[in-house]
Design goal:
Elements (H helix, E strand, L loop, with lengths): L5 E6 L3 H16 L3 E3 L7 E6 L4 H17 L4 E6 H5 L1 H5 L6 E3 L7 H6 L8 E3 L12 E2 L6 E5 L1 E2 L10 H5 L3 E2 L2 H13 L4 E5 L25 H8 L7 E4 L9 H9 L6 E7 L3 H7 L5 H14 L4 E8 L6 H13 L4 E6 L17 H24 L5 E6 L7 E6 L4 E5 L8 E5 L1
Helix pairs in contact: 7-8, 9-11
Length: 429
């Protein structure tokens, strides 16, 4: 009788990666693998990588070294964005046995059946132009909140970004496919679904890059998707993870404002508050459009939380450009910022832009905006003091405490009570 093999996963990067890791884990468990924690000794270790920042690359190498020290006989599989972008470089890392590109990650079970320790590292990848399939995936770590991938890839060519090279062209599930997954999740007791994708607002392009035909014999789109999801029984909350400002239409904003299930919470990438820098970045909007979107959201939903992605230290960003970004964000009615320090990525257009911003200046600007984000979140939270809002509590006992989030994304901490776990509770802030 063959011994049951064990597998452990580690995920770097975005919510999309977490949803895909969770799906890969379920696939291997269905193939007879026993799931282990990453710190345990396992027969196979799978690292799902990111390549948005230089640190993700370094972290991947460190993780492989850690496995080598702990369990030198185990198989090490690397997949994800870094694996698609630099397969040969990863295959040369001592201890790596298999590198799976974007087209092959969901065939992991078949690859593991053919793999033996001691062979030279095997690369199973292809040109990103050939990647055309869509694999739906979702995370289920607990029943409280799930990340559901409904879209993948991107047709944009932002100057700083490697994601189109790592994930391929924009493609998505059909509305029928998404509804089927949501019904499964509802049956398993999930309370909140976060819709995720690389360019979520571009939903509607099928696995082959062509738009699936909807019930009215015309292409499907994101607005139609959220309308259909709002009708499904059994899921109490939906969130839209991140959506480009040029794809966040007035009708989507108005729909969320009138929906009982879609939460008053948007995450909208800005990247810079300077139109000059937005142009250099090849973004598809100007700051005036961004300000219009925020103004409409806050008019229809004054209580809505708005999160912002911003990059500091992009090539060509002068002190004046940075101050323009700072003042723009300072006056915007947003709740928090995700601040990224620009890092050079191979084969991106940004490498051709001069002058390069010194690293110490990039870090200084990052610190200034993170401090602004802290003050913004404090102010946003204080505005809701004394209000009663609905909080979904997570079933994690953290030293006698538990956490949950209001509909508009304010974090609440309280002593652990089992009857609150995975429940939506009216809560006085």
């Amino acid at each position: 009788m063959q011994k049951t093999r064990s597998v452990a996963f580690h995920t770097l990067g975005c919510k999309l990666n977490f949803s895909e890791t969770s799906t890969l884990s379920r696939m291997l468990e269905n193939d007879g693998f026993e799931k282990k924690e990453f710190d345990d000794v396992a027969d196979v270790y799978v690292i799902n990588t990111c390549s948005v920042t230089e640190n993700a690359d370094k972290e991947c190498r460190q993780l492989v070294r850690r496995i080598q020290r702990k369990s030198p006989e185990s198989l090490v599989v690397i997949t994800g964005c870094y694996a698609q972008l630099k397969p040969k470089e990863i295959a040369e890392i001592p201890g790596v046995d298999l590198v799976l590109g974007a087209a092959e990650k969901f065939n992991i079970g078949q690859h593991l059946r053919e793999l033996a320790k001691g062979d030279s590292a095997r690369i199973s990848s292809c040109d990103i132009e050939e990647v055309s399939g869509f694999n739906a995936s979702f995370s289920i770590n607990d029943r409280t909140r799930t990340f559901l991938k409904v879209q993948d890839g991107c047709d944009y060519t932002c100057a700083f970004c490697t994601i189109p090279m790592a994930r391929g062209k924009s493609r998505s599930d059909s509305i029928a496919g998404v509804l089927n997954n949501v019904q499964q999740l509802a049956a398993s007791g999930v309370k909140e679904i976060v819709l995720t994708g690389v360019n979520l607002g571009d939903f509607g392009k099928g696995p082959d890059g062509n738009a699936p035909i909807g019930i009215n014999s015309r292409p499907e789109n994101f607005y139609e998707l959220i309308q259909q999801l709002d009708k499904i029984q059994g899921i109490e909350r939906f969130r839209i993870s991140s959506i480009e400002p040029n794809l966040l239409t007035n009708e989507i904003i108005a729909f969320v404002a009138n929906s009982a299930r879609f939460m008053p919470h948007f995450h909208i990438p800005l990247q810079s508050g300077s139109n000059k820098i937005l142009g250099l970045m090849r973004r598809r909007y100007k700051r005036e459009l961004y300000a219009e979107r925020v103004a409409l959201i806050k008019t229809l939903m004054p209580h809505c939380a708005i999160g912002v992605d911003v990059i500091v230290g992009f090539p060509g960003e002068t002190e004046e450009d940075f101050q323009e970004t700072f003042h723009f964000l300072h006056q915007l009615d947003v709740a928090y910022l995700h601040v990224f320090t620009y890092s050079e990525r191979p084969n991106t257009k940004a490498l051709e832009i001069k002058p390069v911003v010194p690293l110490n200046l990039r870090h200084e600007r990052n610190k200034i905006l993170r401090n602004l984000s802290y003050r913004k979140m404090q102010f946003f939270t204080e505005q809701h003091n004394g209000q009663t809002r609905k909080v979904l509590f997570e079933d994690h006992d953290k030293n006698g405490m538990m956490e949950g989030y209001t509909d508009n994304y304010i974090r609440v901490t309280t002593p652990y009570r089992i009857e609150f776990a995975n429940q939506v509770i009216d809560w006085n802030l």
